[in-house]
Write a structure and sequence with these properties.
This protein is of the alpha/beta class and about 200 residues long. Helix content is about 40%, strand content about 25%. The protein contains eight helices and eight strands.
């Protein structure tokens, strides 16, 4: 889960959740696909967020994009690194055009942070669509061997091009290591990636 991943990232006893009681109007739960937190890593403060794949495929809606934008802003103003732990299907389509505006704000904040604070993304599963755009704006990308980072999935690719291509061939670790050069580190599993 997102909380378990964040607990792996932070030093023991330093993890504090932010925006804990924010929820979408369409959801009865406070668990809505994203967990944001602050804490210490190796004794130094950082901000982080983790997508929760078990909730609507970790897709990000308008409220989640607002939260991500805010922690980017907090990190930039405090001069501390930001870490994203991603397993996301991208934009939450049910939020219609509002999510495109939301992701635009996230990308703007990530751009403002460029060269100001370190930005690190761990791709721990599927990272598709707008989530992949944001990941590619960060300074370092760490992918697990079984993860994918691509702008669209195999089904969308099949509809658009008529080609049958696997997720791994679209954006697996081998593609990024050999051809795109878009990732910096590959790790066997998520524990190794988070501890990198």
């Amino acid at each position: 889960s997102a909380r378990e991943r964040l607990a792996l990232l932070f030093d023991n006893g330093t993890y504090k959740e932010i925006f804990k009681f924010v929820k979408n109007l369409n959801s009865p739960s406070f668990k809505d696909g994203l967990v944001c937190a602050s804490g210490m890593v190796n004794g130094k403060p950082i901000m982080a967020y983790a997508s929760e794949f078990s909730v609507q495929g970790g897709s990000i809606g308008r409220l989640q994009s607002d939260q991500i934008s805010e922690i980017y802003r907090y990190a930039r103003l405090a001069g501390i690194p930001i870490v994203s732990l991603i397993e996301s299907g991208g934009a939450k389509i049910s939020d219609s055009f509002h999510i495109m505006e939301g992701y635009a704000r996230v990308m703007k904040e990530a751009t403002f942070c460029s060269g100001v604070i370190p930005q690190i993304t761990c791709v721990l599963g599927h990272c598709i669509g707008a989530a992949a755009f944001v990941a590619n704006l960060t300074d370092f990308i760490i992918m697990t061997e079984d993860s994918t980072l691509c702008l669209s999935g195999a089904v969308v690719n099949k509809i658009a091009t008529g080609e049958d291509v696997s997720e791994k061939d679209l954006g697996g670790v081998e593609i990024h290591n050999k051809y795109s050069g878009g990732i910096h580190f590959t790790e066997k599993d998520e524990k190794s990636a988070i501890n990198k």
